Amino acid sequence: MKQISYKDLEEAFDAFNELRILVIGDAMIDSYLWGDVNRISPEAPVPVISKTNRESRLGGAANVAINIKALGAEPVLASVIGNDANGHLFKKLLKDQHMTKNGIFESNSRSTTIKTRIISHKQQLMRIDEENSDELDPPTEEAFLNHLLYVMKQEKLDAVVFEDYDKGTITPNIINRVTDKARAMNLPVLVDPKKRNYLNYKNVTLFKPNFKELKEGIKMDHLTPKDYEQIFSALRVMHQEQHIEWIMVTLSENGVLISNGQKYQHMPAQIRDISDVSGAGDTIIGITAVAMAAGLSPWIISEIANIGGGQVCEKSGVVPVNKARLLEESMHHIPSLSQS
C-alpha cells in the first residue's frame, strides 16, 4: 500500500471543497414527535401522548447529501418526491440546508416518503411510515431517467452515488443507464445497496453493503462477521460476476473490510462510547464518495470512513460527520500515514 503523508491528507481534505457529488436515491423526511405519557386512553389500552414538540429533518439519501456537504463538497441530490404537502416541506428542508433542488423530480403519481417517530421519555413508542415503496411506474421512471441524464450533462460532477433504501426510486434500468453514462464521463460510481437491486449493480467502482445486506444479497446465511477470509472469498465471486472494482463491507462493531478482488484489508473498530448507530452507513458512503473523488486510495479511504462512522455513533440521533475532527483523528490513527 502506498504511503501518503499528513500533508497529502490535509491537501485532500482541502480539495473536498471543490467537489460536486451526485446522490441518486430514496430521499425522505424523518419526522419526530416528542410528548409526555401521563395516562392510558379510556378508548383502548394504549398510552395517550401529550405533544410537546415536533421536528422534521431530511432523511434517507438526503442524509448522505448532508454528510457530503459537511465535508465541504457540494451535493446534488436526485430523487423522486410527490407533488404534495410533504413534498413542499421536503423542498423547504432542502433550502434550509442550502442544497440545490436541481436534481429533485416531482411526480403527481407518487407520494413523498415521511417516517414519523413518536418518542416519550427518550423511548420510541411507535413509527408511522407514509410511503409508496413500489418501483417507479414506466412513465415516471422514463421521465426521472431523462432528468438524471440532463443533470449529469449540466452539472460539473466528480462522482455519482446510488443510495438505495428499497423505496423504488432506483430501478435496474436507471442503474444501467446512469452507470454507463458515468463511466463514459470517467466518474466513479459508488453504491450503498439494499436487497431488491443488490445483484443489479454491475460495472461500478465501489460497492458498500453492511454485513446483513451482504448475507441477504448473496444468500449466504452461514457467513459470520469475524471470518474475514470467508467474507473475502464471497466478495471475490461478486467482483467477478458483477465486475465491481472495490467492495467495502461495514461490520458494525467489527469495523470495516475492503477488497479489490485480489486482496483485502480489515480495519477493526476503535473502542468508543457508542450512543446511536443511526446514520453511520450514510456517513461512511458520504466520506468514501468525497475522498474517492479527491483521488485518495481506497485503502486509505476505508480507514478514514471507518473512523468517521465510529465518530457519528458517539452522538445521539442522526448527525453528520465533523470534517475537522475527522481529519484530526485520521492523522493520528491511520498507521499507513507517514510524517514526511
Describe this structure in words.
The protein is of the alpha/beta class and 340 residues long. The chain has one domain (4-28, 60-111, 133-338): UDP-N-acetylmuramoyl-L-alanine:D-glutamate ligase (3-Layer(aba) Sandwich). Helices cover 37% and strands 26% of the residues. It is built from ten helices and 15 strands. The protein has helices spanning 6-15, 61-70, 85-96, 138-154, 172-184, 211-218, 228-242, 280-293, 298-313, 323-333; strands at residues 4-5, 20-25, 27-40, 47-60, 74-82, 104-107, 114-120, 123-130, 159-163, 189-192, 206-207, 246-250, 256-259, 264-267, 337-338. Strands 6-5-2-9-10-11-12-13-14 form a nine-stranded mixed sheet, with helices on both faces. Strands 4-3-7-8 form a four-stranded mixed sheet. Strand 7 and strand 8 form a beta hairpin. Helix 4 (138-154) packs parallel to helix 5 (172-184). The two termini are 16 Å apart. The model has no long low-confidence stretch (mean pLDDT 91).
Biggest sheet, in brief?
9 strands, mixed
* Percentage of β-strand residues: 25-35%
Helix content percent band: 25-40%
Q: Output the CATH homologous superfamily.
A: Ribokinase
Count of folded domains: 1
- Global outline: globular
CATH topology: UDP-N-acetylmuramoyl-L-alanine:D-glutamate ligase
Distance between the ends: 16 Å
Structural class: alpha/beta
Question: How many extended strands?
Answer: 15
Specify the CATH class: Alpha Beta
Order of helices and strands: EHEEEHEHEEEHEHEEHHEEEHHHE
